[in-house]
Model the fold of this input.
Amino acid sequence: MSDMRKGQKILIWGAERPTASLLAQRYLDQGAADVAILLDERGVDKNMPAEVRRIDCDPANPRQMRAFGKELAEDKHGLDVLAIIHDETRLGYLSDNSLDDWQQSLKHNLHLVLQLSQLAYPALKLAKGNVALLGSIGGPYAYTGFGPTGVVREATHTMSRYMASEWIKDGIRVNTVAIAVIAEGETEHNELRLLRARSLPRPDGLFPGHAHPEEIVDIFDFITSPKARWLTGQILMADGGMSLGLNFDHFLEQTNFT
Done:
């Protein structure tokens, strides 16, 4: 337990993910006064702490968003952290994505992220808060199998840098965590095959690009804390070494790394 976030107000979008539950608990353990999640059609992870406030607001619903915007505007404290870990992309190939797939992905991972951030902007400005977004290593690195998520997430990366550039004058920091895959539920089984050829094996059987939720939570916790006060507009590559471009078999043979 600590009081690093004593009195802070925090908003998380992506409540369906186990990573969101762990992040919410981390913020509560650090003394946050109010940790809230947005409820959308994807539901809430079963391990979400009971102390977390549920807000009936789907970012895809304009009416609910307008009502939530009024609530934010009336809060005199402001918003200390906006953490968006919602994801509507998938691994695969560009040729496999239909027009509907692209439209859905762009809507959830770009348009709605921007709209929610804009809605929260006055509250973030009031508290000189932090925005933490989810990105993908498939953006800057054209890994086979990362096309659909990489194209959209690279747009997210660019958007986050412009947000940081425009909002720095208001004391708002914006950073993005570019991941490969978080080991959550079915993802652990369905997408691991795309990483085996590119990653260094881990003692726990996962691979560097295939992160435990706790490992991503540690990074979100850091970039939204005072310890990262000199970071803004950054895309943090949290991929366990995938982007190094190493020949991992040769690397293993030449080192004592285990």
